């Protein structure tokens, strides 16, 4: 995809140069009798019009003589014109491009190399990766003092490449650990412990735990893949959030009773129905509730407690619009503030000692994006955590309410 954007950018740049050359020839043959000032004004207008037709950011620099100060300083004086795409998306960074050492060097060599392309990057105010195409209007053209600069932004492509590399590395690491353990146990069972029944039983139990870990990981990987794939599909099911919560609680009842967790479900809405994907929302609630069950305090003086609230909100400072909220809170140990912003990252875990795959909240995030909803996470160390799922109400339904 990066190559496609790169080729499109260069194609647009060549079209602009070709059209400009054609216009210059026509202008010389048909406007010889025009006054220089009128001809120059028309020329400026046409250059700006053609530049604005480019769908990618571009600008034209003007040289003011070989020894003119503006040719070496990154100031606004150098800009002859800037197209709308550059003004709208890169206005704050245009001078930084001029200040970049690679761009400055290219400008110094523009006499020897009138056509150049270079890669530059910035970290502030955010990560930018640009391929810059530069072409000088040659001396046989009427305006040899102009230089076309086209910006091909590859930041998003670089970002997705990094995500892909990190994903492959993390998935390989997560699978390699249990596989290495299994390999060691199998070698032991086939070798020194071949006739030891007690060791056989012990190792087989550990191997079963490792296999279950890999099954959970592959299931979460498949679920994440489906969530990403279906993110743009339309929602067609009419789902009652109240019934959905009751279904999840029914399916989790045995686990809650086994761990002696007190559960309190409060529903403040009579008929909370939304357009949704029933199975995906079921998975979201299971993921959030299982996290709460995993982290609530057990075996101490503090009784384990999970509270689920379903209520309606209006647009205000906290909520982006009218909608329904499912808030699942626990009285567990809580999560430190510096972890909260990264909880939805793939494979991110607050504590490595827990058996989670680190993909659950990432799956939740993708599913909530498909439902145009949001996940809010609040937590205080020593007091517990609250995960709130916000679902917007359709405008026509909001008007009825």
List keywords for this structure.
401 residues; alpha+beta; Beta-Lactamase; Helix Hairpins; Heat Shock Protein 90; 13 helices
Describe the protein's topology:
Blueprint: H1 2-30, H2 36-52, E1 58-62, E2 79-82, H3 84-90, H4 94-99, H5 101-108, E3 115-122, E4 128-136, E5 146-153, H6 155-190, H7 197-229, E6 237-240, H8 241-251, H9 253-258, E7 262-267, E8 273-276, H10 278-295, E9 305-313, E10 323-330, H11 337-340, H12 360-370, E11 374-380, E12 384-392, H13 395-400
Parallel strand pairs: 7-9
Antiparallel strand pairs: 1-2, 1-5, 3-4, 4-5, 6-8, 9-10, 10-12, 11-12
Q: What best-fitting shape do the alpha-carbon axes yield?
A: elongated
Strand tally is: 12
Q: Count every helix, treating DSSP H or I runs of 4 or more residues as helices.
A: 13
Largest sheet: 5 strands, antiparallel
How many angstroms separate the termini? 46 Å
Helix fraction bin: 40-55%
Written as H for each helix and E for each strand, in order along the chain, the element string is HHEEHHHEEEHHEHHEEHEEHHEEH
| Percent of residues in beta strands | 15-25%
Using the coordinates shown, work out and report the CATH topology of the largest domain: Heat Shock Protein 90
So what's the CATH class of the largest domain?
Alpha Beta
Low-confidence stretches: 23-36, 395-401
